[in-house]
Amino acid sequence: MHRCWGGRLHGSRHQLDDNGAAASGAAAPRLIPRYSERVAQVITESPSPAEPLLRLRGIEKHFGPVQALYNVDLDLPSGQVTALCGDNGAGKSVLTKCIAGIYQVDHGQFFWEGQPVTIHSPRDSAKLGIETVYQDLALADNLDIVQNMFLGRERLRNGLLNEDDMERAASQTLANLRVTTVRSIRQPVASLSGGQRQSVAVAKAVQWNSKLVILDEPTAALGVAQTRQVLELVKRLGDQGLAVVLISHNLHDVFEVATRITVLRLGRDVGVYERDKTTQQEVVQAITAGIPTKVAGIAETTPELAS
Fold first, then answer.
1. Which single residue of 148, 229, 251, 262 could bond 195 by disulfide (Cβ 3.0 to 4.6 Å)?
2. In this structure, what are the phi and psi dihedrals at residue 242, rounded to the nearest 5 degrees?
3. Which domains are present in the chain?
4. Are 214 and 100 in contact (CB under 8 A)?
């Protein structure tokens, strides 16, 4: 197959526990017809259980005379961690920002649960259930965990902040993700370690009924123990049925948690690999010298998954 409010600090009455929900992952996506370079085909059949949560077909993006993405296809199934790999300038950040609604694509189409959708803004993306955790995490150091998790989405009761309700929700989300290393959910983010910050950022993303979570270099600049903590969290997201996109340059981390690996090179997708059927050497080869499979004037090829 190819292809952020100021507030008080006080002790929380809600303690974290070690209970986490887990659900079995979705089945592997079925093969679908190729799409033309300019116009995506119309999907008329009803979505099946094997239908990827999000499908991208023929995605292109220009910045003036510079073309950042060329006819990119991508499948993101529920219950699986899809790694997006590539060298600097490969188009990984541009592609994920198109999914997140930061950029609008110039050509191509999105299919959400089998139905065509348009994503023109981050609001459109959030309505679908897409949340992105960027590398800078976008956390406010002067606020505590609860305040960060509800920043911009505060819950009110009679015109006042419903702090008890927000504490309960934050505690439950962290418990479901088995995040047990924070001392208190009223602990200032400035006092957290790198791994704990990453866990809070992920929890902030998944508590809004998210279906797809995009993680941009979640283990960058983390120590060994913190990296292990974050990778276990990524695994649990997939186990709970979410579709996860992991952007990383660290192939060891990728092979630790990913189910499928999509490689971009110079704005083109050059291969999709199953983790259990490929090697790091083969992925490195695709990253550094992969041959684009959809280039004008060259017969289209369909690389087989590595065996």
1. 229
2. -85, 150
3. 54-289 (3.40.50.300)
4. yes
Q: Which residue do the tokens 């005379």 mark? A: 65
Per-residue pLDDT of the chain (307 residues; tens, 9 = 90+): 444 444 433 444 444 444 444 444 444 444 333 333 322 332 233 344 578 999 999 999 999 999 999 999 999 999 999 999 999 999 999 999 999 999 999 999 999 999 999 999 999 999 999 999 988 888 999 999 999 999 989 999 999 999 999 999 999 999 988 888 888 999 999 999 888 999 999 999 988 889 999 999 998 878 888 889 899 999 999 999 999 999 999 999 999 999 999 999 999 999 999 999 999 999 999 999 877 655 444 455 444 444 4
Q: How far apart are CA 219 and CA 137, in angstroms?
A: 11
Instruction: Provide the 3-class DSSP secondary structure of residue 141.
Output: coil
Q: Is 114 left (phi over 0), alpha (psi -120 to 50) or beta?
A: left
Are 63 and 260 contacting, i.e. CB atoms less than 8 angstroms apart? no
Query: 3-class SS at 93?
Result: helix
Q: State pTM to two decimals.
A: 0.75
- Tokens 């800078």 correspond to 136
Encoded amino acid at 267, one letter: G
Token pair in block for residue 139: 């956390």
Q: Helix or strand or coil: residue 148?
A: helix
CB within 8 A of 136, min separation 6: which ones? none
